[in-house]
Amino acid sequence: MAGIKRYRDESRSTSVKKAKVDVSVQQQKLIKTTVRQSVLPSPEDSSAASEDLVNTHSPKIPPRQALKDGAPAPKRKISQTNRPANLSTSTQGGQVVNGSSSREAHAKQKVLAQERKAVKPNADSIARSKKIWERLRRKSHVPKDERDKLVIELFSIITGRVKDFVFKHDSVRVIQTAVKYGNLQQRRQIAQELKGEYRSLAESRYAKFLIAKLVVGDDEVRDIIVPEFYGHVRRLIRHPEAAWIMDDIYRTIATPEQKARLLREWYGHEFVIFQSSADSALRGDLHQILMENPEKRGPIMQHLKEMTNHLLQKKTTGFTMLHDALLQYFINCTSGGSEATEVIELLKDDEEGDCLKNMAFTKSGSRLVCLALAYSNSKDRRTILKVFKGVMKMLAGDAHGHVILLTAFDVIDDTVMTAKAVFPELLCKDSEEQQRQTELVLQVEHLTARIPFLYLLSPDLPKWLLPNQDTSILKEIHEIRKTTSKKDPQIRRQELVKALSQPLIDLIGQQTELLVSSSFGCQFINEVMFGGVGDKHAALESLAVIARDKPELMNTPYAGRMLKSLVQGGPFDKESKEVRVTDPPLRFESMLYSKCRDGIVNWASGANSFIVVAMLESPDMRDRESLVDALRDQVQVLREAAKGSGSDKKGNAGTKILLQQMEKSR
What we know:
Layout: H1 2-37, H2 46-56, H3 63-66, E1 89-92, E2 95-98, H4 102-119, H5 123-136, H6 144-158, H7 162-166, H8 172-181, H9 184-193, H10 198-202, H11 208-215, H12 219-225, H13 233-236, H14 242-252, H15 256-264, H16 270-273, H17 286-292, H18 297-313, H19 320-331, H20 338-348, H21 354-359, H22 363-375, H23 378-387, H24 392-397, H25 402-411, H26 415-426, H27 433-444, H28 451-455, H29 468-484, H30 489-510, H31 512-516, H32 519-531, H33 537-549, H34 557-568, E3 572-573, E4 578-579, H35 588-595, H36 600-604, H37 609-617, H38 624-633, H39 635-643, H40 653-664
Antiparallel strand pairs: 1-2, 3-4
Helix pairs in contact: 5-6, 6-8, 8-11, 9-12, 11-14, 18-19, 19-22, 22-25, 22-29, 25-29, 26-30, 30-32, 30-33, 32-34, 33-35, 34-37, 37-40, 39-40
GO molecular function: mRNA binding
InterPro entries: ARM-like, ARM-type_fold, CPL_dom, PUM3, Pumilio_RNA-bd_rpt
Function: RNA-binding nucleolar protein required for pre-rRNA processing. Involved in production of 18S rRNA and assembly of small ribosomal subunit.
């Protein structure tokens, strides 16, 4: 230990000595640097400057002697005469400031930039075309006559030289403007000039937007551009710029045959090399390909897996082409096998859930999410559903996403968890009361957003509510759930209806006038009244009051059908041709008659005559005799309505039935 301690002491003393030497050396360097930093003198002061330099290094002042005992280095005065003659100096706040203005420097830089541009090829043409673009881009500030002249001049400049413009970030905007204002023939002319360059344009950060403008609205241009992507899908789908433009073309304007060619390249290299350009019957259905070539299943599935995994690992999961490829892979996996399980694990292990969220809003992606929910166990289903927290309303209103909610209703056995995860967002429970009611009315009157509300209220698949695409997916899901879900479907549905109904019933009582003003609102009222569970008295009372106070709202066909169904007590079954009365019964007919007693004759002789017919036919009508007496008092009015007059020569059909029933009741 003593040796170590001694070694440390020696090293400490050595470092101190070295530090002293270093200080003196630095002081010497400071003197030399100070001299070097003095700028060259002007010619007239050269002799004086030389003398100063000589005196600075004079041997009469030895550096070591001057710095003896740590004395500070002598300060050298730099005379103003030693400064450059071409720089003016001024003092602001004790500091010397360069007098040359930044404006002059920028002007010089601008001149140099213009000189550099002037040396480049087509400099004059590009400069003039950019001037035209500057004028054209402000559409509202340019009269049509002037714009037409500018477009003619612009095409005279770029014709035959389009390729020289498109690969520069500034001049490509000129071509985009030409495409925007050019006629069909001029657009096709530009497309022909760029033939053979579209793959490079797609990979360009700025030129890809030119492809987007060219390809829209002209099948001839589309058929020029899309074939240039053939054979390069694997490269382009991984490119940060080209992937998006290729996927947009695939999703929006490509023909089914073009889509099939692009998708088949995901299945292997042989579909790139041996794909005939003349074959218009190509399909992207992998199942059909494997049926024709079962020996190729292994290589095709492996290649497809590699391509999809690459994009999933890079978190680039928004491509429709990727969703189509993943769906083809999943539906051709063995049901319950390791391949299918691996796909489900890959989807649910995404911590941020971007993959599932992106897939939910495309046709193939939403179907894949539905299949994943159907085949998963209860824990995985819960994990998948939680991914969509915060976007439930978006799912409900999307043409493809809403079917995911319907699948969750049909396959998840834990209805308490489903209700807590989905219904608070759909019912806007975090919003203020007035805002919540307004948003709910907008949802239930939306063609798609209303589906998750009304789907549960019907015991069967409502054909009038669901698109054909939804029906086919749900039938497939119902077959799968026979082996993957345990709870009885009707019990599951009833438990969810119980959690959903009362807020919807309350909405009818609070926003009655808004709902009866639209056909979708009237459909919503009927479905909730017939299929919902809860206290419906306030809602029915509000409907009867609106029918009395706002009779003009009830003269519409959809409002009349709604009131007639409510009076009948249930929906009409076309197969059995009978009314399916709700349990417990609504008994709306007596409530409606008590509110609208004074205007019942107008109803009986007008557009709502069939509502009065339904009142007479209802077995639960308590005030039947009072109704018949009120009609008999105005029988002459009813007979005139039944005969018809003017344009209505046939007469009121409902009034005729009323007269017949009155005759029978005598």
